[in-house]
Amino acid sequence: MKRVYLNYAATTPVDPQVFKAMKPWLTEKFGNTASLDSFGQEARRALEDSRETVANLMHAKSNELIFTGSATEANNTAMKGIAFANRKKGKHIITTPIEHDCVLNSSKWLKEQGFDITYLPVDKYGLVDPADVEKAIRKDTILVSVMHGNNEIGTIEPIEEIGKICLEHDVYFHTDAAQTFGKIPVDVKKINLSLMAVSSHKMYGPLGIAGLYVKEGVNIEPLLHGGGHEFGLRSSTTNVPGAVGFAEAVKVAKKQMDKEAKEQAKLRNYLIENVLKIDESHLNGHPVKRLPNNANFWFAFIEGESLIMYLDAEGIAASTGSACSSVSLEPSHVLIAIGLRHEQAHGSLRLSLGRWTKKTDIDYTIKVLPKVVNNLRKISPFKK
Predict the structure, then answer these.
(1) Whether pTM exceeds 0.90
(2) What is the CATH number of the domain that holds 307?
């Protein structure tokens, strides 16, 4: 049976070049970066070289990047760190209902701590209107958090316009760029970002390492207290092999990003065109302003979990809703936010392409998918 991986938005395989760069730091080379001995100092140099490499891709200074254990940790640090460091200035935070769960749950927790959270509406494509951001800003607003590219429906938000508005009103601006960094250009200076979360395992680097850009001068409270690692913002013994792998993934992305984006967008468009030939199939997200590797659909009279299991039986890996919370029986909060009814949101399918996706993979998928959809509709209690 053919095996097709179309779940790159959930996680990516480690690039062989990345594994090669990491291997010595998992076996021959080791040392605590806080140690004064030669082992520790060698590790320290590798860490700082890696920091500079990752920071360069986002057009940041190396001292503006802290390594974290995950993008979830980075987003939590950004949201809670800004809130508690700036609560004397104000307790108002602006975000959207289509953010990743780690941002939404951080917002929910902050509300329980006495902060005021405003959720901006999105249109049917999942786009935030920058004018709504400006209207929502108050004298006590301390932070605006809008993700760059949506992990479920692929819509790319107008964060450059939002960044200008935040700069004009002297409000910190944070974005979750886990799905965009290393796939499309991200320039923190051009966007006027204060904070940005990025992820290694979404761009062919290892799990267990991610990053948070913190603009020089931004006042932020750390979540973890200890030995003062990562400029005092993230105490923990540093994951040197992970940082080396993340940096190598960035080097590969820098060389291949533009070419890969064009190739994946071409395959994505081919996939979308053919999937929409299925009766009662619909595209979620913006038709043009979307991630080059993302295609998200909903099918009438279909239950998403069953669709995923049937596709998996045919060798095709995909997801329904967000892969980070696919065990939940609740419909996707993103699809509900863009106006889908619960039964429509439950019939969603996300297919995400990657570095090793071939046209034959897409051809196989568009051959199998209509059969699976038709078979499920025959036994669907929703179809009359």
Answers:
(1) yes
(2) 3.90.1150.10
